[in-house]
Amino acid sequence: MSTTNHISTKWLGNMTFESNNPSGNSLKIDIAKEDGGDGNGYRPKALMLSSLAGCSGLDVAALIKKMKLDVEEFHIETIANLTDEHPKFYDKVVVEYHFHGANLKEDKLQRAVDLSVEKYCGVMEMFRQFAEVEINTFFHNK
Question: Which domain of life is it from (predicted)?
């Protein structure tokens, strides 16, 4: 049996929309003032990058917890190239995983990243359908 997500997105005027989420939270989507919007919301394509980082980040965080790893800080940088022609889309995406700490177990953290990238993250798999995805892991030992 498959799961269905249903999102409702409502126009609030000008170029602003509000979109709900199964979590019960909602967010605003808008474009920059120079493009005719009010700049009061998330940009749709950039939001895709947040979804990618968030999806994989949740996997990695769960594995950090499960493996009882000592990580002081963890962040993901997502850098994407947008095509020049309309419809513009991401054709190359670099995802950088940055781990900071004094006792980083690099092999286990790399395993957590690999499991997310190769097995668990559905958004990563969706991105692979239309973009070249490059994964880099950085360990910042204190």
Answer: Bacteria
* Tally of CB atoms within 10 A around 97: 23
How many whole angstroms separate alpha carbon 67 and alpha carbon 48? Answer: 29
Cα first-last separation, the chain: 47
Both tokens of 9, joined, read 């997105």
Residue among 97, 93, 105 nearest 59 (CA): 97
Q: Which of 136, 133, 79 is nearest to 110 (CA)?
A: 136
Which of 107, 121, 114 shows the shortest CA–CA distance to 135?
A: 114
**Pairs from 122-127 (Cβ < 8 Å, separation ≥ 24):** 122/55, 123/51, 123/52, 123/54, 123/55, 123/56, 124/52, 124/55, 124/56, 124/95, 127/48, 127/52, 127/90, 127/93
pLDDT in tens, 45-75: 999 999 999 999 999 999 999 999 999 999 9
